[in-house]
Design goal:
Elements lengths: L1 H28 L10 E6 L6 H17 L2 E6 L3 H13 L4 E4 L4 H13 L4 E4 L3 H4 L7 E4 L1 H14 L4 E6 L5 H13 L3 E6 L5 H14 L5 E4 L2 H14 L4 E5 L3 H9 L5 E3 L2 H18 L9 E4 L1 E3 L1 H12 L4
Parallel strand pairs: 1-2, 1-3, 3-4, 4-5, 5-11, 6-7, 6-8, 8-9, 9-10
Antiparallel strand pairs: 10-12
Helix pairs in contact: 2-11, 3-4, 6-7, 8-9, 10-12
Length: 322
């Protein structure tokens, strides 16, 4: 019996998600979706170009949209003023729901208030958990960035690290500051912050390489996004450094890096879940005035992922859901 159960679980883990996706697509094609109106939900994030994290968020949101008969619109800008303009454009389109990130809350406060005055419910995701309720959002979905940073500090302690470099790739991003602050709170060693221009990977590599060459005591580098992990590995190699490279977020390249040992660990906040739950909760609110969290954020992380987890997660990273 145990063998049968194990085989069944293995089969589900490798194909269950893909089958669910296919069933959802077929249901939509056959008109067998929920009977609620086709509401339009817009998501506006602070993503920069080429950030695979937000591809995963979108994959989750789109999957929920298929299930819930939602017309899903996505737009993004890493410039806070432009992000606010995109939110205003969604308001002008009279969308039925709005999902936003608050990486730079001050720039978003007024336009979020405009959405609410227009009768558009707002859910925040990923960034700005502390500001979400004050801004009038229904709920916030994501990880507590300070707690996530503390989890990194704890893991570095377990690994016997003494001097960590926290690499911030977007100046003014409150979530990034909270992550590095969290590392400092729990890590028993020294933490330095390094600010880089995340829109220019060659510059990121050069800055990291120079820092590692000038300070050989650095034995851990923490990047705050999956695309920066591979760049940090290159900088380490060029600098002749022995520092361990660790990162926030997960994608195919990070899973591979964990497997081959070029990366130590990753902090997964489950971006697919952030996108999926945001759309699904918006549908639930429109349909039944449901809400989750009880006034507190709905947490999707942090989860520490190591080499031991990488192989099991590889199939999900390859399809863009982890």
């Amino acid at each position: 019996m145990a063998a049968v159960v194990a085989a069944t679980v293995a089969g589900c883990s490798s194909t269950g998600g893909l089958r669910a996706e296919e069933r959802a697509k077929q249901a939509a094609a056959n008109g067998k979706v929920v009977t609620t109106p086709r509401w339009t939900v817009a998501m506006v994030t602070h993503s920069g170009a080429g950030d695979t994290f937000w591809d995963i968020v979108q994959n989750g949101a789109k999957q929920a949209a298929v299930k819930d008969n939602i017309n899903f619109l996505y737009s993004a800008s890493d410039q806070s003023d432009q992000q606010a303009q995109l939110v205003q454009a969604a308001i002008d389109q009279h969308v039925d729901g709005l999902i936003v990130t608050l990486a730079k809350p001050d720039a978003m406060k007024d336009v979020v208030a405009k959405a609410e005055r227009a009768g558009i419910p707002v859910i925040t995701i990923n960034s700005g958990a502390e500001e979400s309720k004050a801004f009038g959002a229904l709920t916030h979905i994501g990880q507590d960035e300070t707690i996530a940073g503390q989890a990194v500090g704890d893991e570095l302690n377990k690994r016997g690290r003494k001097h960590a470099l926290c690499v911030l790739h977007e100046q003014g991003n409150i979530g990034h500051e909270q992550r590095c602050a969290g590392v400092k709170q729990s890590f028993h060693g020294t933490v330095d912050n390094l600010y880089v221009n995340g829109t220019n990977m060659p510059d990121v590599q050069s800055a990291l390489q120079a820092k590692l060459q000038s300070d050989k005591s650095i034995d851990a580098v923490v990047t705050l996004g999956a695309p920066f992990a591979a760049t940090a590995v290159k900088a380490k190699q060029q600098a002749g450094s022995g520092a361990e490279i660790d990162t926030f977020d997960l994608n195919t390249q990070v899973a591979q890096g964990l497997s081959d040992g070029s990366l130590g660990f990753a902090v997964d906040q489950q971006p697919y879940l952030q996108g999926y739950e945001a759309v699904d909760l918006m549908w639930l609110y429109r349909y039944n005035r449901d809400a989750l969290g009880g006034g507190k954020p709905v947490l999707t992380g942090p989860q520490i992922v190591t080499k031991d987890d990488a192989e099991a997660l590889r199939q999900y990273t390859q399809r863009g859901t982890r």
